[in-house]
Amino acid sequence: MNKQDILDLLKTIHYPGFNRDIVSFGMVKDVLIENDSIGVLLNITSQNEKKKQKVIKLVERKLSDLFKSISVKLTSDTDQQTPPVKSQHNESVIPILENVDHVLAIASGKGGVGKSTIAANLACAIAQQGKKVGLLDLDIYGPSMPIVLGINEQPLMTENKKLIPLEKFGMKIMSFGFISGNDTPVIWRGPLVSRMTEQFFRDVEWGELDVMILDLPPGTGDIQLTLTQKLQISGAII
């Protein structure tokens, strides 16, 4: 049995929650076969550890009748390029959005080009397919999602002081406009912007999501830098 035979076999394994297999998703990075031993290298961009472990078990089960020794390991495209992010206390930064499978950023070089409209419609379309979707408006200088979606409410808080996202069209939604009021002008500097951005991830009760859509502010700045440092982005639309 060669590498292609193994890939064909792994094509029968669907990624949890999707009708697409792990090979066509590009998650199988390498297969090494030596006598009755096999090693499979997976690259799963999801931040949901439960689903990662489920895929590993599915691969092991699929190969258990063919090999005596099976090694399935996870890797990342950035493993050899980016060192782990450390805090001031030299400890690994606590991961955020662990229960979100895929994070998709919607960005543009300038404002007024329909970025928020695309983000809202894309989120609605994915939600209509039965997926659990979150839509986060990160344009804290001029949030437009309350207007785009016709929402004029303020989010409630849990006993643990976490914000509860508003829900509409079958998706969870959060925007700075829900908190500050959409007509309130905001002038913030870098450190405050980064801190507020991270709070939208850590201090909002998102729950388990298949996809989170991020509506970014125009251009490049503190919010975009915070995202690249704190999140593993699955993809982006520019």
UniProtKB/TrEMBL annotation:
SUPFAM superfamilies: Fe-S cluster assembly (FSCA) domain-like (SSF117916), P-loop containing nucleoside triphosphate hydrolases (SSF52540). GO terms for biological process: iron-sulfur cluster assembly. Keywords: ATP-binding, Iron, Iron-sulfur, Metal-binding, Nucleotide-binding. InterPro entries: FSCA_dom_sf, MIP18-like, Mrp-like_CS, Mrp/NBP35_ATP-bd, NUBPL-like, P-loop_NTPase, YlxH/NBP35. Residues 3-68 form the MIP18 family-like domain. The keyword 4Fe-4S does not apply. One of its GO terms (molecular function) is ATP-dependent FeS chaperone activity. This is MIP18 family-like domain-containing protein.
